[in-house]
What we know:
71 residues, mainly alpha, 0% strand
Amino acid sequence: TFNEIFNEYSKLVFFVANSILKNKEDAEDVTSECFVLFFNAVQKTNIKSIKYYLTTCCKNLAIKKPSPPSF
């Protein structure tokens, strides 16, 4: 179920996002977005490894996330 998967993998996904972004709020946003994408994809796609899908999704979202402007 959603809760079981979220409880098992959310800390890992957050860790990956935070290690890339170095910002807690942005890492939380990426974590949430990653789980939304996962649960939309799982209905349409045969996902063989939940852990691989979530961490890859997370890395891609974190890398694509725009950086805040520097002053």
